[in-house]
Write a structure and sequence with these properties.
The complex is a heterodimer of chains A (848) and B (424). With 848 residues, chain A is an all-alpha fold. Chain A has 42 helices and no strands. A nine-stranded mixed sheet of chain B has the order 11-13-9-8-23-21-16-19-18, with no helix packed on it. Chain B has a five-stranded antiparallel sheet with strand order 2-1-5-4-3, sandwiched between helices. Chain B has helices at residues 27-41, 82-100, 105-110, 112-122, 133-139, 145-157, 245-251, 370-374, and strands spanning 4-8, 14-19, 54-56, 61-67, 70-76, 123-124, 127-128, 184-197, 203-217, 223-228, 236-239, 253-256, 261-271, 280-288, 292-301, 309-317, 322-329, 333-337, 342-350, 358-365, 378-386, 395-401, 408-423.
Amino acid sequence: MYNVDAYLKSLTSNAAKLSKKVQDGIAENTRDFRFENQAHFLDTNEDKMREIRKNLDSKYEKEKLDGLKRLIAMISKGRDVSEFFPDVVKNVASNSLEVRKLVYIYILRYAEQEQDLALLSINTFQKDLSDKNQLIRAMALRVMSGIRVPVISPIVMLGIKKCVTDLSPYVRKIAAHAIPKCYQLDPAQKDALIDIINTMLGDNSTFTIGSVLMAFNHVCPDRLDLIHPQYRKLCRMLVDMDEWGQITAMDLLLRYSRTQFLNPIGKTSATTTRAKKEKSVVKSFYSDDDSDISHHSSDGSESSSDDENNAVDPDLAFLIKCALPLLQSRNSQVVLSVAKLYMHLAPVEDSYKLGRPLIRLLRSHREIQYVVLNNIVAIASQRPYVFDQFYQHFFVRSTDPVFIRNLKLDILTMIATESNITFILRELQEYVKSSNKGFVTEAIEAIGRCASNIPEMAESCLGGLLKLASSKSDSVVAESVVAIRRLLQQRPDDSIAMITQLTKLLDDMTEPLARANVFWLVGQHCVQLTTIAPDVLRKAAKSFCSESEGTKLQILTLGGKLVAQEGASSKTINLLFQYILNMARYDLDYNVRDRARFLRALVYGNQNDLQSGGSGDQNQESDENGESEEHRDHGEDMGGFEYSEKELNLSDHIKAILLSEKPAPVQENPSHGREQYRVGSMSLVLNRVVAGYEPLPEWPTTQPDPSVRRLAAQMDAPGYMNDHTGFGSDSAFAKSRQAAGGFDASGGSRYDGQAGAYRGAQSLDKFLESSSEEETSSEEETDSDEDDDGEEETSEGEDEEEEEASEEEEEEEEEEESEGEEEESEEGVSSEEEAILPPTSKRSNGRR
Amino acid sequence: MIESLFVLSPTGKVIIEKHWHELIPRRVVDYFNEQVSKAIASGEDLTREDVLPIISSPKYQLINVYRDGLTYLSPITKEVDPMMVFEFLHRIPDIMQEYFGQVSETVIKENFVTVYQLLEEMMDDGFPLTTEPNALKEIVPAPNLINTVITTMGATTSASTRKMPHGMSNLPWRKAGVKYTRNEIFFDIVEEIDAIVDSTGKAVSCEAHGTIQTNSRLSGMPDLTLSFVNPRLVDDCSFHPSVRFNKWESDKVLSFVPPDGHFRLMSYRVNLPSQQNLPVQVKPSINIGANGAKFDITVSLRNTEGKPLENVVLTLPLHKSTTTLTAHCNVGQYMFDPVGKVLRWDIGKIVPRERAPVLSGSFGFGTSSEAAANAGYNIGVEFVINSHSLSGLKVDVLKLFNESYKPYKGVRTMTKAGRYQVRA
């Protein structure tokens, strides 16, 4: 009884003590709970600054943490707190991981400034490299290699060497990361580092290998010979690496393959025509059977005789196959890297597989859409058929940002085919309703581009544009008339009916640009428009005074052309023209007066001395106006100069001068040029070379020795490197299902966590290796009869005349006008063409 | 190589600055802010969202991500695949979301030490290191109450032997030694409809994007196989790294060892045959004159298998010159924002076979302009249908290998409007 009592007593007193202790503890700690909110560290005044030093020296972890947090707050506010370095460095050996991590952040930030003091910390790191906790070892090496003080490079080197053989794949990964850092500290260590990399390439852990390849790409990107023995292994491991490792690995394998295999893309492309190619490709797309594809390509071209040469190298085919599942990655760069691989390595048929995954990325963040669309533009400009069935995904939403909208329009015009054009056109006409002017302009231009890309559909495009030309909105009218004019220049056959339609609209058109274009069109085609043209001129004469400058110029030109066409036979036209000339003579604008003088001289000969005197003055004026244009024109019109020296009577050649065929403008997609860059690169997105851009190596012309990969013996990697961390791997999974013991048995040993993995690693590994070997060889056989269809590179001529994107005719025209005048007076013929250009066509049209 | 990161507040001030390689001076942020405001001022109705994601400066390519009002800016000196930078930059708010539950200027400031620690672990010398939430949580503890208690108690009782995280699991995405007393796993299948519907009610484009959000609370190293009744519906998909690609290719099942906690198991796309699948029909009619317009909008249900539409909201951005608006609706309430020129109609719930909600009224332009009269209108539609899968994708069976317990399994489905737009 007594015992029990005593026991109870002691129990209650203990309980009381305990509860008091707990209460104290809580009371003491309530103040700490507010630390969950770290914001208060951010407002640090001078008093607090002084406290920091005291905190750092404190023996309490809590206060040290306070001090460190305050320091980091200062760093993030952009203040220089390097003065605390000595106080911080003292804490590097703290027992608290929490403290250390913050110390590391600080040291890494200021080590470069305080090199001597930073050395004080090295000792601790070296000791930590032998810690039994893998995280500590890894962290020590990370921080040590991150201290950018060249003196310590030998120590870092030692650290790397130590960690390379570490049992933990995480530590080995960190060691691989340290290699490029060490190389930066001391480039003289390169050879030793390459040795290390070479050893590490034998690492079979999917966890580590990505970082090793990263180190390889940084330190010795050209030592591709080191990859030979590892190539097949890398391909096999690709699917199990972590996302970032996959990206690095694909970069490397792409470069490797470009130097080690013959081009599987281009062998037949030189001779096959585009149409033929498209047909065969489309067919093969719908047939699921692989053998079908090879059939097509072999009978589609002359290549059946050298079929063997056309077969894709089995090793390359293996890579292409191994990369395929990565298209299902959630990481958009991985998907794009596969696209890069496929575009630059794989036979053309394979690019069909890229369509869906790339489209999927369009559901992602705005920035990712931007990059994907840029890449789709580049891919579609070479292989539009990859995307033509997905046209709906490029429809613009009212919420899309500007840069997305424009890219989508570009793509829509590129992938338009006869089968989807109706939908695309309908959609484009919808965009014209947008309240954003810039977008409307783009949309109308896009309609024009569609029409010139697919001549079969030009008629319906023209129909659509004509409808827009009668729209209520001035800018829409202007843009669509310009687009029509451009199209008509390319398709002189449909012109007449179209122009007739346009002239009917002329009365309601108010936009000067649109009117100017119509007048030019009528003038240019006045030969076929014998009934309408004079009437248009009559109306123009009536409204001449109220027209804008650009339109007046076109009316003058129209008159000149009509007179040139009809000659002196038609009195009415002559009278009308003279009336217009007289009006123009007293116009406020000197360009109009000049043009009038010029035409008068041209059409009616040099009867009037006044005019020639006038044009003499003109020379000077235009010298000022058209400076930039001049040089070029002088150079180009030399022929014209000789011509005029013969002192021919210009009026004999009026027809030739005024009514010559004008070359149709070349319409270029604004995104043109992207396809020359590597898929996925920044240079492609920006459409210019960015510093550090390296084009892909050219394909070798002769087959490099393929046996280097085969001969590479299965070098027995040290056991510690053989733990397959790619546990979720497909191969491992497949294997474990096959294994006699069933899934649970074989899997169980690996699930025990680390220790178990190391133990079972060796045998399991061999097992896996041999099994995947079989897989490989059988795949090689099947893949080898896959044929390539030759690349279809519709390389657009670099030297194509560029048409300027801007549509501000007025200024351009002014320049051209004055320049025309000037040439006329001294050299005559050749430049007239230039002077009577259609309002929107730019300098390119002037070339003959 | 991603050398530096600046996280900027909505006003362009630096909240977080982190250099993984060499220091890049803060000046670059001023330059960036200048370019952004220039870009926004360069055209009418441009917003921050219209600013290019890559801005060139004389020395750097300024790669920037704009998300939740914050800018993640990374100046790049050398050629790098920009997609990788964007992907990484987006991972940062993703991880912060996972750690702190939300992302904003205040949240970052409240947790800035943790943020710095995370950034330190996510990247090493310009190369992504650890980006899996599960692995990160091993190294940098998430700031929940229990952790705080442990930290503060631990700190006072024994300053020396803090429990160090020991095991990195062999799977980068899964922690080692996970233990739950109650083993359960939940799948949320959320489908979003993207559609453009023209004024006649015909869908110009129409598709469903689904995600399977998973919350796994299972002990040990469970190996799961999830199969669907009708996997062939899926047109295109992407997976969490844990999913074995080949099993999907061969058997159309998802075979995976799940991470612990929340993660997105799979995203997929389903092509919808045509518009009869759309659960709702919005019929707008807008008659525009020179000074204003009369409009009415009718919303009717279609094909929802008898389930109600919830949280229905229609937004109609009006032309910039709109000044006045009067309207009447029989269900819900409408609001006109005279600054942003947006009409927002909050309908709430629509139950099948009840009268269709109608909003009618008129609005006027301040100055009569032809541009306003010719502009087209787009109505944004939002709604939610619970326990409904538009595509009809159904989970069949979830099998568990490698562990002996029987987990509780839950599957929920939901259909939402994604980028759903009706042209008027």
